[in-house]
Amino acid sequence: MTALVAGAESRAAVFAGLALAALVFNPAGDAAAKPLTVADLLAGSPAADWRMPDPEDTLYMDLARGRVVIELASRVAPQHAANIRALARAHYFDGLAIVRVQDNYVVQWGDPDHHRAVPAGVRAGVEFTAAAGAAARFEPLPDRDAYAPQVGFLDGFPAARDPRSHVVWLAHCYGMVGAGRDDPPESDGTEMYAVIGHAPRQLDRNVALVGRVLQGMELLSSLPRGSGEMGFYVPSEATVPIRSVRIAADVPKAERTPVEVLRTNSATFRAVVDQRRQRNEPWFKFSPDHIDLCNVPLPVRAIPAAGL
User: Fold this and answer.
1) pTM for the full predicted model
2) In this model, does residue 17 exceed pLDDT 80?
3) What is the DSSP string of 186-231?
């Protein structure tokens, strides 16, 4: 896969591309022209720079307020992805609830008392890092990071890497989804959480990250905070019921939520990252020439249902 901008020559090529794109929007070459925005870059992007998530790797969590669409990181956490598919197909989550909303941290759902029978085939696993060979798919960013020697993207998900050991892992950025666990490292995948606050990167390599929210984050991040310890709802507070959790492949096409995701190895994505790193809009009086991994936008857009 094409690596992200990593050196001076590559960055110069991106700047040249941005300059060319600017001429497209400003053929006269007016020096006072409005700088390109992310919206401009996405509007002019070729169709090949976008991908539709695999329906087998797409999870729909339907709440009373709407649908949360989650893409599973099946190549990074295959055991957990298989568990989640089995649980969804057994309707395990249907009728359960969101039981924890901790401010600036996570939303969590599942069966906290473990009263519900777990379907056969669901196995506990430890997938804190990606399987061997993932380093070849890693797309590095040149920007420094406090938690890892190197950061970038793996299979479209924010990730980190130790280039000495070639170990790669997913990063706890906003919207990432993980499998809850207790003190033992194994997690059974029946409790899940989504990051709704400032990136808790101290959790990296301590919990299995299983995917990220593509659409519907506002349905999770705006929920009332629980008043109990760690944001759990106390008995006097109503939990948020889960109507159903389904795999998109099992949902009739007419009922699916068609979205496409910008490829992180595309020229458009590289231009988007550099636009956010180099803030040239008139409002900005200082540009840090840097971007934090969890501040990199991961564009997702709705597509017409006819595109299914």
Assistant:
1) 0.88
2) no
3) -B-SSSEEEE-SS--GGGTTTSEEEEEEEE-HHHHHTSPPP-SGGG
